[in-house]
Amino acid sequence: PEAITVQELANRMAERGADLVKALFKMGMPVTLTQTIDQDTAELLVTEFGHAIKRVSESDIDIDTSEDVDAPETLKARPAVVTIMGHVDHGKTSLLDAIRGEDVVSGEAGGITQHIGAYQVSLPDKSRITFLDTPGHEAFTEMRARGANVTDIVILVVAADDGLKPQTIEAINHTKAAGVPMIVAINKIDKPDSKPQKVREELLQHEVIVEDMGGDVQDVEVSALKKTNLDKLLEAIQLQAEILELKANPDRAAEGTVVEAKLDKGRGPLATVLVQRGTLRVGDVFVAGASSGKVRAMIDDKGRQVKEAGPSVPVEVLGMSVVPAAGDAFTVVENEARAREVASYRQGVLDKKRTTSAPVTLENMFANHA
Ligand code: GDP
Ligand code: MG
Questions:
Q1: pLDDT of 38-73, one tens digit each?
Q2: Ligand 2 centre and the CA of 319: distance in Å?
Q3: Annotated binding site for GTP, which residues?
Q4: Which residues have a beta carbon within 5 Å of ligand 2, which is an ion?
Q5: pTM of the prediction?
């Protein structure tokens, strides 16, 4: 019988490897991403996650996602998706802006960057990294609570003159609970009173062991203000991404997650979609949460109109019937009748939930996902 590594199976299912490891652990099989599992176990996981995906639309008129596994030869490398977390004022926004300034493509084009909720940075070797533009663990927790796991890597920002603070510790806990690998950016090293070594020691107390301390968590001393060592941080991300071997099938109907949505006075409902598998094209018919529509136009993070978007690419989508919510699943379907059918069913489920269920808290999130 065919054996497969956990990461390879995750790629084929377009799920995060960490989620599979957690599921296996719950089944009493403690394995790592690089270990192999047998076919029976693999099939069990597929079924398990088929249900998990179904939960998003929960219906008899469901989009059939069970057995929805891409053949290994269809998988291609995809960019890592990164979220920045950390205590208030430790420099999350500054770091996002500084990294964005490093983008060789936007630099060349002199293009105006546009806020769409996520952006991509192209590196000199032509590889890319996708950054989610909503720093903070609230967005992260909220998305995860809704079953949307879009982040491959978390950058934990800690100001070297301030050390670990309550929100730093919360971010550590969320990241660990999600099973997402972390890279520590020790920021503000330009400050005379910065104490990077003290940060490493404090991290140790919270079981985040950086490489210097004999652990496997990468840490990089940076200054978002002076733009120091941003290249090193990007290299650390690339290294982590290589270890994860992130892949997806670009040649299929697109699936993704809404990362940001709003009502624009002139253009109507807008949503930024992070494509996770397949390729999204202008003209595609889709369902996004309780919204549906046909892609009228797509705008990338540089403000350019694009005709298609592949795995790990964030695009603003025009053509939604109503404004979806961040964390909503986005799925291309065969026709508009089907899209409306699924969307209205989901609206019904949402209405029911709103009147019966408790609001999202850390406690019920862990109850659902631990
Ligand atoms: P956020 O709340 O985590 O998003 O933090 P901000 O990016 O808004 O930064 C908070 C403050 O720290 C601002 O006044 C920034 O100018 C300052 N800051 C951010 N990064 C650095 C840095 O590397 N060095 C210094 N000296 N100040 C920084
Ligand atoms: Mg900020």
A1: 888 888 888 777 654 444 444 444 444 445 788 889
A2: 30
A3: 86-93, 133-137, 187-190
A4: 92-93
A5: 0.83
Q: Find the 140 Cα to ligand 2 centroid distance in Å.
A: 15
Task: Say what the pLDDT of residue 363 is.
Answer: 46
ipTM of the complex: 0.99
- Compute the distance from residue 135 Cα to the ligand 2 centre, in Å: 7
In a mutational test of the pocket of ligand 1, which residue from 89, 186, 189 has the highest number of ligand atoms less than 8 Å from its CB? 89
Q: Is residue 293 pLDDT above 80, yes or no?
A: yes
Q: Does the CB atom of residue 223 touch ligand 1 within 6 A?
A: yes
Q: Which ligand is nearest to the CA of 90?
A: 1
Amino acid identity of 258?
V
Cβ-contact 172, 156 below 8 angstroms:
yes
> What number does the ligand 1 atom closest to the CA of 228 have?
23
pLDDT digits (tens, 9 = 90+) for 160-208: 999 999 999 999 998 888 888 999 999 999 999 999 999 999 999 999 9
Binding residues: 86-93, 133-137, 187-190
- Please tell me the predicted confidence (pLDDT) of residue 145: 65
Predicted confidence at residue 194, as pLDDT, reads 98
Contact status, residue 291 vs residue 330, Cβ threshold 8 Å: no
